[in-house]
Amino acid sequence: MKLFASLLATIVAAQAVQLPPNFKKCNRHQPDFRGCLLDAARFGATQLNRPYKELKMASLDPLYIPKIQASVNTPLVNISSDLTDCKFHNLVRVDIEKFDIDFEAKTLHLAAFWPELKSECYFKIDGHMLRNRVQGEGPSSAIYRKFKWTFDMTYEEAKRRNKTYVKPVTTSFDGKPESVFMDMGFLGIDKEMGERINKIVNDNWSELYDDVKGYYLENARDTWVQIMHGWFARLSLEEAFD
Predict the structure, then answer these.
(1) Are 233 and 10 in contact (CB under 8 A)?
(2) Is the Cβ–Cβ distance between 57 and 51 less than 8 Å?
(3) For 207-227, what is each residue's pLDDT tens digit?
(4) Which among 72, 29, 9 has a CA at the least distance from the CA of 217?
(5) Which three-class secondary structure string do you get for the chain?
(6) Rounded CA gap, 77 and 132, in Å?
(7) What is the dihedral of CA 201, 204, 218, 154, to 10 degrees?
(8) How many CB atoms lie within 10 A of CB 242?
(9) pLDDT digits over 174-200, tens only?
(10) Nearest to residue 167, comparing CAs of 19, 8, 54, 18?
(11) CA pair distance 87, 60, nearest whole angstrom
(12) Looking at the domain covering 2-156+177-241, what would its CATH class be?
């Protein structure tokens, strides 16, 4: 992905920073490091409701994504879609179940869930879904309840000015909510048709989600890469964990 490549390319130019004072620091050599790290991640998530200029990180409450684009071609769904001016709410209201960094294996694992995640986007869609014609545009909203997810990353270490920085190598994001409710406000089409499309989506959300998630979770993966980049391209391992 272009975003992933561009983030890696800027690592060498990033300026070193210190851990913001409102975040908890854990020493990787302390006996209870894993427990400390989990507590720090849980508290740190609540602090991401404002931007951090030193980390070049925007607020996650809400998270703004200008555009999400996907062309989906699966047995159930064949559509092209553009989602623009997207806002995701409640990202900082996350229950982190596990957060591990293995400095020997150079891996990071994060497992968590959002009790309720909300999104708002303007959409354009064209194609077929469950053999039904779907075409139109307008405002949309979605509610994802009990969204359980994981983020995994392998990394390399990059030395700069006698400090050690993290360079992502491979990343993955996976997850699924327990329920989804979507409301697509189609403009310029028959109201009854719009309601029928919404009903198709909401009645079959789980099957549709499994069919198309690979296309859209890639955008979620890139978002977390950007967040991790904000931290570890500018915050050295020594500053963060020593």
Answers:
(1) yes
(2) yes
(3) 989 988 887 888 788 877 877
(4) 72
(5) CHHHHHHHHCHHHCCCCCCCCCCCCCCCCCCCHHHHHHHHHHHHHHCCCCCEHHHCECCCCCEEEEEEEEEEECCCEEEEEEEEEEEEECCCCCEEEEEEEECCCCEEEEEEEEEEEEEEEEEEEEEEECCEEEEEEEEEEEEEEEEEEEEEEEEEEEEECCEEEEEEEEEEEEEECCEEEEEECCCCCCHHHHHHHHHHHHHCHHHHHHHHHHHHHHHHHHHHHHHHHHHHCCCCHHHHHC
(6) 9
(7) 150
(8) 12
(9) 999 999 999 988 877 778 888 888 898
(10) 8
(11) 9
(12) alpha beta
* Amino acid symbol at 9: A
As a whole number of angstroms, the distance between CA 85 and CA 48 comes to: 20
Segments of the chain scoring below 70 in pLDDT: 1-17
Q: What are phi and psi of 104, to 5 degrees?
A: -80, -50
Task: Please give the angle made by the CA atoms of 57, 62 and 68, to the nearest 5 degrees.
Answer: 85
Token pair recorded at residue 187: 């403009």
